[in-house]
């Protein structure tokens, strides 16, 4: 086992930002406004956020602690998983179905992305109002399907670093509801991208759950019902991240402008399902069909656009602890695009940070700690460090040397920082996270920050 001395203490005074007697859920990336003055979050009753029952998107001012309600859902809908655009005053989040019915409840294929203007929302909140939300992804449930529209639900929307495209995970209502035994594609989690459109994507009104969208939305990953053991085929694509603020340099020195790293579920030669790191390179134009219709068919998933290239990065089936492991986490790229960070166990079974080039090669073990990395993580804006939770504290790991510094006091398990998010500010001078705290005699998840300098 690695030596405990690999973690050193450099403690700072944390500050609690929220105190309301309800749960607060911070998204794992893009939680800070571009100017670093606000943090956006949602409210849910479940400590882990797995019960999607929140009806408000809120923001807290970092200096004053003032809280504004940016959006409040109506008609039985819930909302959550909010994040900022890094270049403009936009906030994107999940919206559940309004007026849910027994056959149309909230689930992975019955949700959509919506966007609000943050400054408008803040102004309206000051007058006890709520901002209007624009629906991001169109839905078309009846053939012939509309290119640029989807047939299911989208989740955890994250803007690209240039603020132009939005990545999300996707599941398909039509395929989820096919009878068992049907010779068709199964519903599997995939990754999609929404790109700005000159005009809204408009769909027919021949299904009550159809709706228009502001962006042209497509699926960019490809899964199969039953991956061949030992192959690069996958049955699930998820936990994605944009690579670099301006893409990455290929091995030949040319630049790939936009790409996503993600976790893909493969089968080893012994038919063990494990998650490996993958990458999908995206062309500049995502509106051109590839090997099939962008909108899919009644029995086939939506097909990726022309020019999309999906590649496997890691091959870990022969390791003592194969696959990406640890707490649920999203792959994260260094700002310069040179490295992608992920979590895997070392030979002693301890969850460590590892990195790999987007061009492939052997993963590099970054940390050698005695304790598991215990949360999702983010890179500092300068690429020099990675923020995460470890052993009851918020920590920073040097992205070159791998030395981990504990920057908040170690908390007992019941008050330790939550594993869902540990997010650097846009200026790199603070880290936001969630941990339980007592409010009104009860324990609720609250938003905290710790200043770094």
Descriptive account of the structure:
The chain has helices spanning 118-126, 173-176, and strands at 7-9, 15-16, 38-42, 56-61, 67-72, 79-84, 90-95, 112-117, 134-135, 152-159, 166-172, 190-201, 213-219, 237-242, 248-249, 255-256, 258-267, 273-282, 309-312, 332-333, 340-345, 351-357, 360-365, 378-379, 385-390, 393-398, 404-406, 422-424, 430-439, 442-451. It is mainly β. The chain has a domain at 1-17 and 329-453: 6 Propeller (Neuraminidase).
Which tags fit this structure?
mainly beta, 3% helix, 453 residues, 30 strands, five-stranded mixed beta sheet, four-stranded antiparallel beta sheet, disordered N terminus, globular, Neuraminidase
SSE order and pairing:
Layout: E1 7-9, E2 15-16, E3 38-42, E4 56-61, E5 67-72, E6 79-84, E7 90-95, E8 112-117, H1 118-126, E9 134-135, E10 152-159, E11 166-172, H2 173-176, E12 190-201, E13 213-219, E14 237-242, E15 248-249, E16 255-256, E17 258-267, E18 273-282, E19 309-312, E20 332-333, E21 340-345, E22 351-357, E23 360-365, E24 378-379, E25 385-390, E26 393-398, E27 404-406, E28 422-424, E29 430-439, E30 442-451
Under the CATH scheme, which architecture of the domain at 1-17 and 329-453 would be assigned?
Answer: 6 Propeller
The portion of residues assigned to helices is: under 10%
User: Please, how many helices?
Assistant: 2
Low-confidence stretches: 1-5
Could you name the CATH topology of the domain at 1-17 and 329-453?
Neuraminidase
Name of the CATH homologous superfamily of the domain at 1-17 and 329-453: TolB, C-terminal domain
Radius of gyration: 21 Å
Approximate shape: globular
CATH class division of the domain at 1-17 and 329-453: Mainly Beta
